Amino acid sequence: MKYTQGKYFIVRKQAIAREIYSFVIACPEIAEAAVPGQFVHIRADGFTLRRPISICGIDREKGTLRIVFEVRGDGTAQIARLNEGDTIDILAPLGHGFTLLPDAERVVLIGGGIGTPPMLPLAKYYGSKAVAVSGFRNASAAILQDDLRDTGAETILCTDDGSAGIHGFVTQPFSELAANGGIDAVYACGPMPMLRGVADICRKSGIFCEISLEERMACGIGACLGCACRISENGSERYAHVCKDGPVFRAEEVLW
Amino acid sequence: MADLSVNVCGVDFKNPVIPASGVFGYGREYEELFPLSTLGGIATKGTTLHLRTGNLSPRIAETPGGMLNSVGLQNPGIDHFIETELPYLLTKDVVILANIAGSTPEECAQAAEKLEATDVHMIELNISCPNVKQGGAAFGTDCAMAAEVTRLVRRATTKPLIVKLSPNVTSITDIAKSVEAAGADAVSLINTLLGMRIDVNTRRPVLRNNVGGLSGPAVFPVAVRMVWQVANAVNIPVIGMGGVSTGRDAIELMMAGASAVQVGAAIFTDPLAPVKIINEMNEFLDSKGISSVRDIIGTVQPW
Fold first, then answer.
1. Mean pLDDT across the stretch A122-148?
2. Same domain, A26 and A54
3. Which of A3, A43, A223 faces B269 most closely, judged by CB atoms?
4. Phi first, then psi: what are they for A41, rounded to 5°?
5. Average pLDDT over chain B, rounded to whole?
6. B22 in contact with chain A, both atoms CB, cutoff 8 A
7. How many CB atoms lie within 10 A of CB A26?
8. Residue of A nearest to B34 (CA)
9. Are residue A123 and residue A66 in the same domain, yes or no?
10. Is the N or the C terminus of chain B less surrounded, counting Cβ atoms within 10 Å?
């Protein structure tokens, strides 16, 4: 199985910050196939388009997936109204995930705001070899810091207003980490200016870097060509599609 | 179990449900979810003589009861389609409607000519794209231009030729009659309705192309009206589409006069929509004791 569509039970729902929800979904065959960096495409009752949400946890033993999402509009608000015991209609697992490097000694995971959830499966994979740098608007928007620490990863928290952790953007502590050297890979997800800043530092330091992109999307499986992004491949420019070729891309491929 | 088979321009379909061009690619992505042979037909992604890269993003915007798109005909070109995609599709026991488009009537005709040597079952000509020779006005918005492109493509192919009509016109029946007179074997309608959304915070259009095509349940009543009008105005078969999302919608469009039905945006909401629509049509016909879907075509009884 590459991907499937069906209705699955929500076994746990938590509100983990203002307008941010965590669902654990019982879907054994999807959990079996899913890899870090992939996403699920969720039907919002009454809306034409599904909502793509990144995978925040894969538990093959329990046969569950975890997603963490923010209410951004009417569609995600509709999904947030679902409760434990309800079914959720998902098409998953979709997309091309992160490249996992079994021999890496030290990796940095960088999440900005709601870009933090896809970093958690990577933290689980790399454990104490990972440093997770997360940035949020303020202390009350900060999520998943305990979850990241529980994997054995070191965590560095930044807030835009200084209400928790470092006062500033994630690029500040990350540039220090990069300057110290010894980083085998960087994985990042978050707002475009953040990704661009991270990609710049990696390019200058020659560090392997993968980023997860977002785009308005329809089919989710590479058929409709709605979610185009410009990338450069072997020196020539082309439109790739975030749903199938991504959402994870090598940072140097992306034409900003 | 009602008989769902239909015949359009001499081509047999096991059922009247066809994923519309643009939503289904060349089928490969959906084969993962259900056997393509379940379908009556597949209208393939609009393909041009040469590769097209398409428009900048965002290309998609959601709207109440539907969506806007401006993909800009991104496709790998007709040669790639013929060499790589068509042979695979022709093994799937499903009618293949090769959707073609172009910037000039000659480009459309050349694409059709290349398909002439293949085993593709039907050609669906998209006349909603801008005609660069005529200052960028869409072929499909002018009777003379619509007839010209139809005539040239007609000359290039012996395959059943379906002309896909734009609803962005004052009188779609006039366009339909023009393409019928120019040699079309069937018409399909409606393509998307031109629309626009603006992000009021940034004052920027949501789509990078500013405007795009509206589809989804919101356009269904427009489709029913236009299918009904066109079916009453021409003597060639009509393939209906526009916002079909349930078996009842498909039945309604066939009662309005459609011989077969295409399914577009509904596939984004539910990738199994075409399969469910086939099952629901069957249930409806059984519940009414109607033995063949052919018996409902054009049977609306207007006041």
1. 97
2. yes
3. A43
4. -110, 110
5. 96
6. yes
7. 17
8. A4
9. no
10. C
Give A178-215 pLDDT, tens digit per residue: 999 999 999 999 999 999 999 999 999 999 999 999 99
pLDDT at A119 over 70: yes
CATH code, domain carrying A254: 2.10.240.10
Nearest to A5 among B62, B67, B272 (CB): B272
Indicate whether A114 and A197 sit together in one domain: yes
Q: Between chains, do A239 and B54 touch, taking CB under 8 Å as contact?
A: yes
Put simply, the answer to whether B62 touches A47 (Cβ < 8 Å) is yes
Running DSSP on this structure, what letter comes out for residue B213? E
Total domains in chain A come to 3
Using the predicted structure, report yes or no on whether residue A68 has a pLDDT greater than 80.
Answer: yes
Clarify whether B143 is annotated catalytic: no
ipTM of the predicted structure?
A: 0.93
Whether omega for the bond prior to residue A121 falls within 30 degrees of 0, making it cis, is no
The domain in which residue A32 lies consists of 4-94
CATH number of the CATH domain containing A20: 2.40.30.10
The answer to whether A27 and A90 have CB atoms below 8 angstroms apart is yes
For residues A206 and A115, state if they share a domain.
yes
∠A78-B210-A219 over CA atoms, to 5°?
45
Q: Which residues of A touch B (CB under 8 A)?
A: 2-5, 43, 47-50, 75, 89, 91, 215-219, 221-230, 238-239, 244
pLDDT, residue B136, reads 67
Q: Over the stretch A227-242, which tens digit does the pLDDT of each residue have?
A: 999 999 888 888 999 9
A141 lies in the same domain as A90: no
Domain boundary among A60, A94, A128: A94
Closest CA to A37 of A81, A78, A96, A112: A96
B135 within 8 A of B174, measured Cβ to Cβ:
no
Same domain, A194 and A104: yes
Residue where a domain stops, chosen among A94, A119, A152: A94
A6-60 tens-digit pLDDT? 999 999 999 999 999 999 999 999 999 999 999 999 999 999 999 999 999 999 9
Instruction: State whether A5 and B217 contact (CB < 8 Å).
Output: no
Looking at the structure, do residues A112 and A203 belong to the same domain, yes or no? Answer: yes
Q: Are residues A42 and A86 in the same domain?
A: yes
Please name every residue paired with A112 in a beta bridge, in sequence order, or none if there are none. Answer: A135
Taking the C-alpha atoms of residue B197 and residue B60, their distance in angstroms, rounded to an integer, is 11
